[in-house]
Amino acid sequence: MDDQKLTVRAVERALDVMLCFTDSAELTLTEIAAKVELHKSTVHRLLASLEGRGFVIRNEDTDKYRLGFRIWELAANMESGDDPATILLPEMERLRDQEGETVSLYVRDGIERIRIQAVQSNQAIRRVAPIGARLPLSVGASSKVLIAFAEPADQEALLAELSWADAGERDVFVRQLGEIRRLGYATSVEEREPGAAAVSAPIFSRSRKLVAALAVSGPSNRFTLERMREHAAIIMEYAARMGKMVR
């Protein structure tokens, strides 16, 4: 293997190590090695380089690694003028205060959806929604919204690419998409995880491009299907208002 390929492989591996922290705040060397499926000696060298550049920090007491301050330096220079996660946060907070439940913002990435922003409910029993989580696109209210309101060609490609337990599951999903387009919102009750329910509406930009899915979620025993349907108009109103704030 030539030097260029070795260099690219090293960069890819280092990025894989960094991506381990998308769903964990701190990790041991062993845990990281297991996640990236590399020998611990290789991962140790990668971590040493990242630590030297300030991208990770090792806690000497626990021997665990976490993201370093250099990450925040990079994030501070991101262009946020067109970033929905930044622009729409105040409206999400107002919606949370009005509904009393957790509010999330999702975008599609391939055959997954990513939670790019979340405002947690203030109630003692609540739906916790970590930012950055990647979720399957075949279940959940926001997944249905992101597919139902996608361009026809994109929708057809997604339905062909997603994994289904059987043909009947796919047929039910497709029938739901038509109803969602008619109503303007989607609901889900314990589709992805027990005890959780959500209602979601699409956010279209001023140019009528689908930007994201706005979701309100909570415990299914409190956030019932009846309550979600009653409050769907409010969520769609917020989604429409948010759409006017993005290009």
Task: Tell me about this structure.
The protein is α+β, with helices and mostly antiparallel strands. It folds into two domains: 3-74, Winged helix-like DNA-binding domain superfamily/Winged helix DNA-binding domain (Arc Repressor Mutant, subunit A, Orthogonal Bundle); 84-243, GAF domain (Beta-Lactamase). Helices cover 47% and strands 21% of the residues. The strands form two sheets. Strands 6-5-4-9-8-7 form a six-stranded antiparallel sheet, with helices on both faces. Strands 1-3-2 form a three-stranded antiparallel sheet. The relative contact order is 0.11. The model has no long low-confidence stretch (mean pLDDT 90).
List its traits.
Arc Repressor Mutant, subunit A; 3-stranded antiparallel sheet; Beta-Lactamase; 9 strands; alpha+beta
